[in-house]
Amino acid sequence: MWARKGTRPRALKQQQFIYSYIYGAVCPSTGQAVGLILPNANTVCMSLHIDEISRSIPEGRHGLILMDGAGWHQASLNRDNVTIVKIPPYSPELNPCEQVWQYIKDKSLKNRCYTDYDDILRVATEAWINFTTEEGRIQSLCSRDWAEI
After folding, report:
1. Residue 53, H or E segment
2. Which of 108-119 are b and which e, b meaning 16 or more Cβ less than 10 Å from the residue's Cβ?
3. Residues linked to residue 63 through DSSP beta bridges, in sequence order
4. What are the structural domains of the chain?
5. 0.85 cut: is pTM over it?
6. What is the C-alpha separation between 41 and 53, in angstroms, rounded?
7. Scanning 23, 40, 59, 67, which has its CA 20 to 30 A from the CA of 117?
8. What does the pLDDT look like over 28-53, one tens digit per residue?
């Protein structure tokens, strides 16, 4: 848009923002995934996600979850069958799930306009389901030779 020097051009722009967050965890060895789509990024929602992960772990097994140091990734989220391990700051390459988020964004979410919140939920749900049902995708993105137990 053109404007005279020293003036501010008048332009219409979107003023509202609506967010939804995909909470996801994957097991590279089995290819299983657990995900929730929630309205906030906070400790309450993360706790719901950890509860869902805990319920999905088979009896007699223990889940190890790698997380960065976000404020809502608290050690108090540990459960009897789930342990949170913090990765060092500025090292997202140590968390294989970072490739998941980049893959989902690139394949399904970026450069889109949404009509409303329901549309955001629909697209996010489809993106997660498409990712988790794509044969071998979890293992190919998230397996690390150095992470074998």
Report:
1. helix 43-56
2. ebeeeeeeeeee
3. 82
4. 21-140 (3.30.420.10)
5. no
6. 17
7. 67
8. 889 999 999 999 999 999 999 999 99
